[in-house]
């Protein structure tokens, strides 16, 4: 079964470029030129990944991402941004986009990013059928992580996490009590060079804290180690 990619961009030249190169790489490609059509296709066609431009007519990429995540459509999203879209880029990550790329970009780089995201998604799908390890889990305080199922629970409730959020939480849990630098987290979770752009780590840490911390200003689980990075630890009993 072929892998399906949804490309949503209002620039015909970019759509044509991406469609040609993705099809040459063996993917099935569907396209949309505005946010409303893109959102409908994301819901109806169940693509394996969405390449989503920020600036779109009718409904911008931020709103498309927001509505899909609210509707529990967790398809990985690779956002395309212009160089001056810094705030929108960060907002997109906060709303659940898995990754971003800045225009202009090379088709080769896009395909590399798509492959990296799909590789992790495929690992998730294949692992879900691994009965021998299905019960393996990590327990830290009231947080329980099932690596094989790609599920995490806090106080018994299932956490709604994007793929990147889960992988970051899992990696922190695997290294419980160990201080991890932002560069280490970038390398382990994103698997490629972000040219020192560690803000993507900070955004995802903030997102995780909103889901597992009683007080995000005084986190009990994910601690900031000034000048170094972050660590996940057992909450202290008061």
Question: What does it look like?
Answer:
The structure is a single chain. With 238 residues, the protein is an alpha/beta fold. It folds into 2 domains: 4-127, Rossmann fold (3-Layer(aba) Sandwich), CATH 3.40.50; 131-232, Arc Repressor Mutant, subunit A (Orthogonal Bundle), CATH 1.10.10. It contains 8 helices and 12 strands. Strands 2-1-3-4-5 form a 5-stranded parallel β-sheet, sandwiched between helices. Strand 3, helix 3 and strand 4 (77-81) form a beta-alpha-beta unit. Helix 1 (12-24) packs across helix 5, helix 2 runs parallel beside helix 3 and helix 6 packs across helix 8.
Summing up helix and strand content along with how strands pair, one would put the structural category as: alpha/beta
How far apart the termini lie comes to 53 Å
Mean pLDDT equals 83
Low-confidence stretches: 123-134
Strand order of the largest sheet: 2-1-3-4-5
Report the CATH superfamily of the largest domain: Response regulator
CATH class of the largest domain: Alpha Beta
Strand fraction equals: 15-25%
- Architecture of the largest domain, CATH level 2? 3-Layer(aba) Sandwich
Helix content: 40-55%
Tertiary shape: elongated
Instruction: Please count the beta strands (DSSP E, at least 2 residues each).
Output: 12
Oligomer: single chain
């Amino acid at each position: 079964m072929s892998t399906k990619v949804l490309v949503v961009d209002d620039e015909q030249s970019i759509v044509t470029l991406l469609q040609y190169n993705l099809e040459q790489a063996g993917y099935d490609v569907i396209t949309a030129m505005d946010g409303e059509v893109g959102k409908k296709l994301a819901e109806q066609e169940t693509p394996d990944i969405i390449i989503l431009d920020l600036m779109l007519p009718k409904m911008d990429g931020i709103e498309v991402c927001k509505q899909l995540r609210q509707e529990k459509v967790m398809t990985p999203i690779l956002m395309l941004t212009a160089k001056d879209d810094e705030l929108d880029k960060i907002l997109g990550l906060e709303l659940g986009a898995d990754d971003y790329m800045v225009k202009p970009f090379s088709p080769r780089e896009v395909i590399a990013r798509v492959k990296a995201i799909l590789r992790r998604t495929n690992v998730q799908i294949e692992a879900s059928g691994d009965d021998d390890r299905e019960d393996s889990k990590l327990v830290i305080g009231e947080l329980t992580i099932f690596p094989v199922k790609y599920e995490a629970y806090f106080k018994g409730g299932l956490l709604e996490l994007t793929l990147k959020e889960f992988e970051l939480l899992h990696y922190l849990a695997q290294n419980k009590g160990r201080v991890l630098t932002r560069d280490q987290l970038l390398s382990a979770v994103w698997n490629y060079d972000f040219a020192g752009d560690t803000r993507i780590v900070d955004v995802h840490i903030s997102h995780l804290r909103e889901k597992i911390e009683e007080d995000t200003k005084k986190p009990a689980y994910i601690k900031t180690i000034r000048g170094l990075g972050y660590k996940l630890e057992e909450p202290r009993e008061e």
